[in-house]
């Protein structure tokens, strides 16, 4: 599992790899440069919105996987809408 420190480092690494300045990445992702600096330094928790904006601007693929303790409950993946409704109906949720 990736930690926030890993994610912050990956954002900085990809920005540099793409030869983008902090200013250009901040502008492309519609966040402030100060927020980007905080993200890259891992000096504060970034919001999901900020992460998704940065990921999109850097061309990152974001994949969500269930916690290992949850795997196997619904085939090792997040349930879809119909499965959630069925789980509610049967009292499993």
Overview of this structure, please?
This protein has 93 residues and is mostly helical. It has two domains: 4-58, Orthogonal Bundle (434 Repressor (Amino-terminal Domain)), CATH 1.10.260; 64-93, no CATH class. Helices cover 55% and strands 0% of the residues. The chain contains five helices and no strands. It has helices at 4-17, 22-29, 33-41, 48-58, 81-89. Helix 2 (22-29) packs across helix 4. The longest helix is centred in the N-terminal third of the chain and has 14 residues, at 4-17. The radius of gyration is 17 Å and the shape is elongated. The mean pLDDT is 84.
Order of helices and strands: HHHHH
Broad structural category: mainly alpha
Total beta strands? 0
- How would you sum up the global shape? elongated
Low-confidence stretches: none
What proportion strand?
under 5%
The CATH class of the largest domain turns out to be: Mainly Alpha
The CATH H-level homologous superfamily of the largest domain? lambda repressor-like DNA-binding domains
Largest sheet: none
* Mean pLDDT across all amino acids: 84
By CATH, the topology of the largest domain is 434 Repressor (Amino-terminal Domain)
The CA-CA distance between the termini, in Å, is 25 Å
For the record, the count of structural domains works out to 2
In short:
This protein has 93 residues and is mainly α.
Secondary structure: elements and pairs:
Layout: H1 4-17, H2 22-29, H3 33-41, H4 48-58, H5 81-89
Helix pairs in contact: 2-3, 2-4
